[in-house]
Each structure stands twice: as structure tokens, then as C-alpha cells.
Amino acid sequence: MSARATSSMSSALLERGYELARIDELLEGAIAGSGHLLLVTGPAGIGKTSLLEACARSAGERGIRALAARRRAGDGVVVRGGP
Ligand SMILES: Nc1ncnc2c1ncn2[C@@H]1O[C@H](COP(=O)(O)OP(=O)(O)OP(=O)(O)O)[C@@H](O)[C@H]1O
Ligand SMILES: [Mg+2]
After folding, report:
1. Ligand 1 geometric centre to CA of 40 (Å)
2. Ligand 1 near 32 CB (within 6 A)
3. Burial code of 18-29, b = ≥16 C-beta within 10 A, e = fewer?
4. Could you give the CA distance from residue 56 to residue 48 in angstroms, rounded to a whole number?
5. For residue 75, what pLDDT band results from cuts at 50, 70 and 90?
6. Is 45 in the pocket of ligand 1 (CB under 6 A)?
């Protein structure tokens, strides 16, 4: 992970060093042409959304456009542009 990405990502999240480093590897892999699917699961409130927001920030720092989709009850799936 680059120093810039490490400092901006770790300042927002505690005890997510492994996950953030893994995300960084996957982003670098995507830039190199090797895409992956990352599934984030866990109990309510554990930090899934926060981790994915950090992923989107890290992607943006690398010039990767991040898109997010969020389900709303009874309203299908909403897709919006990321940073
Ligand atoms: N690694 C972390 N360090 C510090 N605070 C965190 C961390 N992860 C999450 N939080 C905080 O915990 C709260 C819940 O996080 P978040 O909304 O990302 O959880 P979630 O797993 O997406 O929840 P839900 O299951 O309800 O969607 C938020 O206030 C967030 O800022
Ligand atoms: Mg969430």
C-alpha cells in the first residue's frame, strides 16, 4: 500500500489494516488488468459500509471511478456515481 493511501484510509478506520491492505492489493490488481469480486459480510454495525467507503476513496485516489448501489425497501436498487 502506498503511504498516501495508508494514511488516508487508516485515519478513518480502526483495526482494519488487514482488510484495507487486501483491498489495496485488489485495486492494484485491477489496474494491472486482473479484476476480482470482493464480498464483505458481517454483523449489523460491524463496519461493512465504512470499509466499502474507504475502498471507494482508495479507488478514487488511484483514478478508478467507483460506483455504489444501495437497496431501498420497496424501491429496487439505486445506483449512483462514486468519488
Ligand atoms: N473500523 C472502524 N473504526 C472506527 N469506527 C468504525 C469502524 N467501522 C465502523 N465504524 C463506525 O461504526 C458505525 C457503523 O459502521 P457501518 O455503518 O459501516 O456498519 P455496517 O456494517 O455497514 O452496518 P449495517 O449492518 O447497519 O449496514 C459507524 O458509526 C462507523 O463510523
Ligand atoms: Mg451498512
Report:
1. 13
2. no
3. ebbeebbebbee
4. 12
5. confident
6. yes
Question: Domain-by-domain residue ranges, the chain?
Answer: 3-81
In which residue are the cell numbers 460506483 written? Answer: 67
Query: CA-CA distance, 50 to 54, in Å (whole number)?
Result: 6
Q: Given this model, what pLDDT does residue 11 score?
A: 54
Instruction: Confirm or reject: Cβ of 17 under 6 Å from ligand 1.
Output: no
Measured in Å, residue 44 CA sits from the centre of ligand 2 at 7
Give tens-digit pLDDT for 13-62: 999 999 999 999 999 999 999 999 999 999 999 999 999 999 999 999 99
